[in-house]
Design goal:
Blueprint lengths: L2 E12 L2 E12 L3 E5 L6 H8 L10 E3 L2 E2 L5 H7 L1 E4 L11 H8 L11 H7 L1 H5 L10 H13 L5 E5 L7 H9 L1 H6 L3 E5 L3 H7 L2 E6 L2 E6 L6 H9 L2
Parallel strand pairs: 3-8, 3-9, 6-7, 7-8
Antiparallel strand pairs: 1-2, 1-4, 4-5, 9-10
Bound molecules: adenosine-5'-triphosphate and magnesium ion.
Protein backbone atom coordinates (compact mmCIF):
# COMPACT_ATOMS: atom_id res chain seq x y z
CA UNK A 1 0.00 0.00 0.00
CA UNK A 2 1.17 3.50 -0.81
CA UNK A 3 1.51 5.87 2.12
CA UNK A 4 -0.38 9.05 1.44
CA UNK A 5 0.05 10.93 4.69
CA UNK A 6 2.43 10.34 7.59
CA UNK A 7 3.81 12.01 10.68
CA UNK A 8 7.30 11.34 11.99
CA UNK A 9 8.01 12.00 15.67
CA UNK A 10 5.38 14.73 15.65
CA UNK A 11 5.32 17.03 18.69
CA UNK A 12 2.73 19.77 19.15
CA UNK A 13 2.65 22.74 21.48
CA UNK A 14 0.22 25.39 22.68
CA UNK A 15 2.70 27.96 23.95
CA UNK A 16 4.74 26.13 26.59
CA UNK A 17 2.25 23.29 26.89
CA UNK A 18 3.19 20.16 24.95
CA UNK A 19 0.11 18.33 23.67
CA UNK A 20 1.71 15.67 21.40
CA UNK A 21 4.90 13.69 21.99
CA UNK A 22 6.65 11.91 19.12
CA UNK A 23 3.54 10.73 17.30
CA UNK A 24 4.13 8.42 14.34
CA UNK A 25 0.99 8.14 12.25
CA UNK A 26 0.38 6.75 8.80
CA UNK A 27 -2.51 6.72 6.34
CA UNK A 28 -2.40 4.74 3.13
CA UNK A 29 -4.15 5.58 -0.11
CA UNK A 30 -7.78 4.44 0.17
CA UNK A 31 -7.57 3.64 3.87
CA UNK A 32 -9.90 4.63 6.73
CA UNK A 33 -8.16 5.13 10.05
CA UNK A 34 -9.57 6.07 13.46
CA UNK A 35 -7.95 8.09 16.22
CA UNK A 36 -9.45 7.32 19.62
CA UNK A 37 -8.62 8.47 23.11
CA UNK A 38 -10.07 10.13 26.19
CA UNK A 39 -10.85 13.84 26.54
CA UNK A 40 -7.68 15.87 26.18
CA UNK A 41 -5.65 12.96 24.74
CA UNK A 42 -4.59 15.06 21.75
CA UNK A 43 -6.92 13.82 18.99
CA UNK A 44 -7.99 17.26 17.75
CA UNK A 45 -4.42 18.48 18.12
CA UNK A 46 -3.26 15.73 15.76
CA UNK A 47 -5.86 16.74 13.15
CA UNK A 48 -5.02 20.43 13.56
CA UNK A 49 -1.33 19.61 13.09
CA UNK A 50 -2.03 17.60 9.92
CA UNK A 51 -3.98 20.41 8.33
CA UNK A 52 -1.45 23.11 9.23
CA UNK A 53 -3.37 24.95 11.96
CA UNK A 54 -0.44 24.26 14.31
CA UNK A 55 3.07 24.84 13.02
CA UNK A 56 5.58 22.02 13.07
CA UNK A 57 8.99 20.95 11.83
CA UNK A 58 9.27 20.85 8.06
CA UNK A 59 9.85 17.08 8.07
CA UNK A 60 7.33 16.17 10.81
CA UNK A 61 4.50 15.66 8.30
CA UNK A 62 4.72 14.06 4.90
CA UNK A 63 1.91 14.24 2.34
CA UNK A 64 2.00 13.22 -1.32
CA UNK A 65 5.82 13.09 -1.39
CA UNK A 66 6.20 16.54 0.18
CA UNK A 67 7.33 17.59 3.64
CA UNK A 68 4.51 19.86 4.75
CA UNK A 69 5.03 20.27 8.51
CA UNK A 70 5.72 24.00 8.22
CA UNK A 71 3.29 24.87 5.45
CA UNK A 72 0.29 27.12 6.14
CA UNK A 73 -3.21 25.64 6.28
CA UNK A 74 -4.56 27.14 3.01
CA UNK A 75 -1.71 25.58 1.06
CA UNK A 76 -2.27 22.18 2.69
CA UNK A 77 -6.01 22.34 1.99
CA UNK A 78 -5.24 23.10 -1.67
CA UNK A 79 -3.01 20.01 -1.74
CA UNK A 80 -6.01 17.91 -0.73
CA UNK A 81 -6.47 17.69 3.03
CA UNK A 82 -9.87 18.75 4.37
CA UNK A 83 -10.98 19.01 7.99
CA UNK A 84 -14.52 18.65 9.30
CA UNK A 85 -13.81 20.50 12.54
CA UNK A 86 -15.09 19.72 16.01
CA UNK A 87 -18.28 21.76 16.47
CA UNK A 88 -18.79 22.11 12.67
CA UNK A 89 -17.87 25.82 12.42
CA UNK A 90 -20.35 26.63 9.68
CA UNK A 91 -21.06 30.15 8.41
CA UNK A 92 -24.26 30.75 10.36
CA UNK A 93 -25.43 33.69 8.23
CA UNK A 94 -25.08 31.78 4.95
CA UNK A 95 -27.46 29.34 3.32
CA UNK A 96 -26.76 25.62 2.99
CA UNK A 97 -25.70 26.02 -0.62
CA UNK A 98 -23.48 29.01 0.12
CA UNK A 99 -21.73 27.04 2.86
CA UNK A 100 -21.13 24.19 0.41
CA UNK A 101 -19.80 26.54 -2.27
CA UNK A 102 -17.31 28.07 0.16
CA UNK A 103 -15.79 24.59 0.44
CA UNK A 104 -15.10 24.48 -3.30
CA UNK A 105 -12.66 27.41 -3.28
CA UNK A 106 -9.16 26.27 -4.16
CA UNK A 107 -10.28 22.68 -4.66
CA UNK A 108 -7.48 20.14 -4.98
CA UNK A 109 -9.31 18.22 -7.70
CA UNK A 110 -12.49 18.81 -9.73
CA UNK A 111 -14.01 15.36 -9.27
CA UNK A 112 -16.08 13.60 -8.00
CA UNK A 113 -17.70 16.02 -5.54
CA UNK A 114 -19.79 18.99 -6.62
CA UNK A 115 -23.17 20.37 -5.53
CA UNK A 116 -25.05 17.61 -7.37
CA UNK A 117 -23.08 14.72 -5.92
CA UNK A 118 -23.14 16.18 -2.40
CA UNK A 119 -26.94 16.55 -2.72
CA UNK A 120 -27.16 12.92 -3.86
CA UNK A 121 -25.27 11.93 -0.72
CA UNK A 122 -27.47 14.13 1.52
CA UNK A 123 -30.86 14.62 -0.24
CA UNK A 124 -32.22 16.69 2.66
CA UNK A 125 -29.63 19.36 1.90
CA UNK A 126 -30.98 19.80 -1.61
CA UNK A 127 -34.46 20.34 -0.20
CA UNK A 128 -33.13 22.93 2.19
CA UNK A 129 -30.47 24.46 0.01
CA UNK A 130 -31.82 28.03 0.26
CA UNK A 131 -32.40 27.72 4.00
CA UNK A 132 -30.18 29.20 6.65
CA UNK A 133 -27.91 26.68 8.36
CA UNK A 134 -28.70 28.23 11.74
CA UNK A 135 -32.29 26.92 11.40
CA UNK A 136 -31.26 23.31 10.74
CA UNK A 137 -30.98 20.38 13.12
CA UNK A 138 -27.60 19.29 14.47
CA UNK A 139 -27.54 16.29 12.15
CA UNK A 140 -28.30 18.40 9.09
CA UNK A 141 -25.63 20.90 10.11
CA UNK A 142 -23.16 18.04 10.38
CA UNK A 143 -24.10 16.98 6.84
CA UNK A 144 -23.39 20.53 5.66
CA UNK A 145 -20.00 20.44 7.40
CA UNK A 146 -19.10 17.13 5.74
CA UNK A 147 -20.48 18.28 2.39
CA UNK A 148 -18.49 21.50 2.58
CA UNK A 149 -15.28 19.55 3.19
CA UNK A 150 -16.07 17.17 0.31
CA UNK A 151 -16.59 20.12 -2.06
CA UNK A 152 -12.81 20.64 -2.02
CA UNK A 153 -12.49 17.09 -3.41
CA UNK A 154 -9.92 16.17 -0.79
CA UNK A 155 -7.57 13.23 -1.02
CA UNK A 156 -7.93 12.93 2.74
CA UNK A 157 -11.01 13.81 4.80
CA UNK A 158 -10.29 14.44 8.50
CA UNK A 159 -13.43 14.19 10.66
CA UNK A 160 -13.35 15.42 14.25
CA UNK A 161 -16.15 13.90 16.36
CA UNK A 162 -18.81 14.00 13.69
CA UNK A 163 -21.26 12.05 15.87
CA UNK A 164 -21.04 14.28 18.95
CA UNK A 165 -24.46 15.36 20.21
CA UNK A 166 -26.41 13.64 17.42
CA UNK A 167 -29.23 11.13 17.80
CA UNK A 168 -28.11 7.50 17.21
CA UNK A 169 -30.17 7.10 14.01
CA UNK A 170 -28.57 10.21 12.52
CA UNK A 171 -25.13 8.95 13.50
CA UNK A 172 -25.92 5.68 11.68
CA UNK A 173 -26.95 7.63 8.58
CA UNK A 174 -23.73 9.60 8.59
CA UNK A 175 -21.46 6.60 9.19
CA UNK A 176 -23.19 4.66 6.42
CA UNK A 177 -21.85 7.23 3.96
CA UNK A 178 -18.20 6.68 4.76
CA UNK A 179 -17.81 3.79 2.27
CA UNK A 180 -19.28 6.02 -0.44
CA UNK A 181 -16.83 8.77 0.41
CA UNK A 182 -13.97 6.27 0.18
CA UNK A 183 -15.31 4.98 -3.11
CA UNK A 184 -14.86 8.49 -4.48
CA UNK A 185 -11.10 8.14 -3.92
CA UNK A 186 -10.90 9.93 -0.58
CA UNK A 187 -9.07 8.38 2.38
CA UNK A 188 -10.68 9.03 5.75
CA UNK A 189 -9.43 9.78 9.26
CA UNK A 190 -12.08 9.80 11.97
CA UNK A 191 -11.73 11.01 15.52
CA UNK A 192 -14.46 9.38 17.56
CA UNK A 193 -15.33 9.09 21.26
CA UNK A 194 -17.43 6.00 20.61
CA UNK A 195 -14.58 3.51 20.33
CA UNK A 196 -16.74 0.54 19.33
CA UNK A 197 -18.26 2.48 16.45
CA UNK A 198 -14.87 3.76 15.36
CA UNK A 199 -13.36 0.30 15.31
CA UNK A 200 -16.30 -1.10 13.30
CA UNK A 201 -15.76 1.55 10.64
CA UNK A 202 -12.02 1.56 9.96
CA UNK A 203 -9.14 -0.53 8.64
CA UNK A 204 -6.72 0.60 11.35
CA UNK A 205 -6.72 2.74 14.45
CA UNK A 206 -4.47 4.70 16.77
CA UNK A 207 -5.14 5.19 20.46
CA UNK A 208 -3.75 8.33 22.07
CA UNK A 209 -3.25 8.90 25.77
CA UNK A 210 -1.86 12.16 27.09
CA UNK A 211 -0.33 13.04 23.75
CA UNK A 212 1.32 9.70 23.04
CA UNK A 213 0.32 6.74 20.85
CA UNK A 214 -0.35 3.92 23.29
CA UNK A 215 -1.73 1.38 20.81
CA UNK A 216 -2.07 1.10 17.03
CA UNK A 217 -3.22 -1.69 14.78
CA UNK A 218 -6.12 -3.40 13.10
CA UNK A 219 -9.32 -3.73 15.11
CA UNK A 220 -9.42 -7.50 14.59
CA UNK A 221 -5.94 -7.92 16.05
CA UNK A 222 -6.60 -6.33 19.45
CA UNK A 223 -8.77 -7.26 22.40
CA UNK A 224 -11.21 -5.00 24.18
CA UNK A 225 -8.89 -5.15 27.17
CA UNK A 226 -5.87 -3.96 25.11
CA UNK A 227 -7.89 -0.97 23.94
CA UNK A 228 -9.20 -0.21 27.43
CA UNK A 229 -5.65 -0.15 28.82
CA UNK A 230 -4.37 2.00 25.98
CA UNK A 231 -7.31 4.38 26.38
CA UNK A 232 -7.37 4.78 30.15
CA UNK A 233 -3.84 3.71 31.06
CA UNK A 234 -5.02 1.25 33.70
N1 LIG B 1 -5.85 26.18 22.25
C1 LIG B 1 -5.30 25.52 23.26
N2 LIG B 1 -4.49 26.13 24.15
C2 LIG B 1 -3.91 25.45 25.16
N3 LIG B 1 -4.07 24.13 25.37
C3 LIG B 1 -4.86 23.47 24.51
C4 LIG B 1 -5.51 24.11 23.42
N4 LIG B 1 -6.24 23.19 22.75
C5 LIG B 1 -6.05 22.04 23.40
N5 LIG B 1 -5.21 22.19 24.45
C6 LIG B 1 -4.76 21.13 25.37
O1 LIG B 1 -4.08 20.15 24.62
C7 LIG B 1 -4.42 18.83 25.07
C8 LIG B 1 -5.00 18.04 23.92
O2 LIG B 1 -6.22 18.65 23.52
P1 LIG B 1 -7.08 18.13 22.30
O3 LIG B 1 -8.13 19.15 22.07
O4 LIG B 1 -6.19 17.77 21.17
O5 LIG B 1 -7.71 16.81 22.93
P2 LIG B 1 -8.83 15.85 22.34
O6 LIG B 1 -8.28 14.47 22.37
O7 LIG B 1 -9.30 16.36 21.03
O8 LIG B 1 -9.98 15.97 23.44
P3 LIG B 1 -11.59 16.01 23.29
O9 LIG B 1 -12.01 14.58 23.26
O10 LIG B 1 -12.01 16.68 24.56
O11 LIG B 1 -11.94 16.78 22.07
C9 LIG B 1 -5.38 19.03 26.25
O12 LIG B 1 -4.63 18.96 27.44
C10 LIG B 1 -5.93 20.41 26.02
O13 LIG B 1 -6.29 21.02 27.24
MG1 LIG C 1 -11.08 17.08 20.35
Amino acid sequence: MTTLLATHALDAFYGDFQALFGVDFELAQGEAVAVVGANGAGKSTLLKSLVGLLRNRHDAIHFLDHDIGDRPAPEIVRMGLALVPEGRQLFASLSVEENLLVGAYGAARREPWALDTVYELFPVLRERRRGNVADMSGGQQQMVAIGRALMSNPRVLLCDEISLGLAPVIVEDIYRLIPRIRAGGTSVVIVEQDVARALRTVDRFYCLQEGRVTLAGRPADVSFDDVRKAYFGA
